[in-house]
Automatic annotation (TrEMBL), chains A, B:
Entry function: May play a role in DNA repair. It seems to be involved in an RecBC-independent recombinational process of DNA repair. It may act with RecF and RecO.
SUPFAM superfamilies assigned: Recombination protein RecR
PROSITE patterns: TOPRIM
Protein name per UniProt: Recombination protein RecR
Source species of the chain: Rhizomicrobium electricum
Length: 198, 198
C-alpha cells in the first residue's frame, strides 16, 4: 500500500504534465497545495474551471480570449492594415507586454517542423493568406529566431508572395543589456551586417 | 487594456504561487492548460477540488490522507513501537517510496528556524512527547541534514530525554552512487568517522 492516496497521486500526475514541473516538483507543488487548501488549492480549482469555461480561441487571429473575435481583433484603435504573425499566443503576450505593436495579430499555432511532423496544413496559414488579401499593407513575421521559426518565415514569405503585401521581419542583433562576450557567432554576425550609422 | 483577460491573469497569478513555478513558467503552464482544456485543464480542476475536499491531516501523526487517523496509523502490520520523526509529509513520502521503514511516523510540520520564526510551539512536538510515553521503544529522528534539521534533532533529543525512550538518527555518509570528488567536506568527514570494517 502506498502512503500517497489515489486523490493525491492523481493530482501529482496531472501537475507533472505542466511544462516546467517534473515528477519531483509536482509532488512538492501538490503538497504545497494541500497545505494551502483555502488560499491556493480551492481558488486554483475555481480559476481553472472558470478559465476552461470562459476562454475561446479567436476565429480571426487565433488568440485566446473570453470572446471570439477577441478583444484585440475588436479594438477599433488598433491598426487593421498591419498584421504581426507569431508562432504562439505566448509570443503575442510577450509583444503586448512590450507594448511595441498597435496593429493586429495572427497566431500560427506553431512553427514548421519536419521532426515533429508540423506541416503548413497544421498551421493557420490559409486564414493568414485570406486576411492578407483584405486591405492589409504590411505583414510583420515575428517568428522565433530558431531553425523552425526561420523556416516558417521563409515558407510564409513564399506563400504570401501572391498577395503582393509587403512582408517584413523583426531585426536580429545584440539584445538590449546583452554582453558581446556571451553572444553566439550567429547573433554577432547578424548584428554586424545590420549595423547602422550614428 | 491588457491582451490577457482577467480569467487567464488570475490563473497565471495562482500558478505562479506554486513552488517551482515563477511568473514566466506560470504563463507557459497557463497557456499549455488552455490548449489542453479537455485532457489536462478540466481534469486538474476536478483533481484539485476532489483532493481539497477529501484530504485531511491525520490527528495522530500529521500525515495527509483521506481519513484521520491516516492509513499508516491504522495499518496493524506496521510496528507501533518505532516512531520515525520527519520534518514534512514530503519526507514521509520519500521514506515510503524507499520502503525501508515499517513503523509509524510523526510529522513535525517543519524545522526549528530562528530566521523564519519557527519555534518549538509551532511544531508538533507536544504530541510527539505524548506518543513517546505510550509504549514506544525507539524514536528515529529523520530530519534533513541541514542546520535547521540538525538543530531540531538536538532540540528533540533534549525534549525526549524525560521519556527515557531510545533516540536514534539516520546515518550520515557517502550517498549511494555519489562520487567523492563532488562531496562536501562535512559529508566526507562524517563518512570517515562512521567507517565500518569489512
Amino acid at each position: 500500500m502506498s502512503a500517497i492516496g489515489p486523490e493525491i497521486e492523481r493530482l501529482i500526475q496531472l501537475l507533472a504534465k505542466l511544462p516546467g514541473l517534473g515528477p519531483r516538483s509536482a509532488r512538492r507543488a501538490a503538497l504545497d497545495l494541500l497545505k494551502k487548501r483555502e488560499v491556493l488549492m480551492e481558488p486554483l480549482a475555481l480559476a481553472l474551471t472558470d478559465a476552461a469555461r470562459a476562454i475561446k480561441t479567436c476565429e480571426i487571429c487565433g488568440n485566446l480570449d473570453t470572446a471570439s473575435p477577441c478583444a484585440l481583433c475588436c479594438d477599433p484603435r488598433r491598426e487593421g492594415r498591419v498584421l504581426c504573425v507569431v508562432e504562439d499566443v505566448a509570443d503575442l503576450w510577450a509583444l503586448e507586454r512590450a507594448g511595441v505593436f498597435k496593429g493586429r495579430y495572427h497566431v500560427l499555432g506553431g512553427a514548421l517542423s519536419a521532426l515533429d511532423g508540423i506541416t503548413p496544413e497544421r498551421l493557420n496559414v490559409g486564414s493568414l493568406i485570406d486576411r492578407a488579401k483584405q486591405g492589409v499593407e504590411e505583414i510583420i513575421l515575428a517568428m522565433n529566431a530558431t531553425v523552425e521559426g526561420q523556416t516558417t518565415a521563409h515558407y510564409l514569405l513564399d506563400a504570401l508572395a501572391e498577395t503582393g503585401v509587403k512582408v517584413t521581419r523583426l531585426a536580429h542583433g545584440v539584445p538590449v543589456g546583452g554582453e558581446l562576450d556571451y553572444l553566439d557567432e550567429g547573433t554577432l554576425s547578424a548584428a554586424f551586417k545590420a549595423r547602422r550609422s550614428l
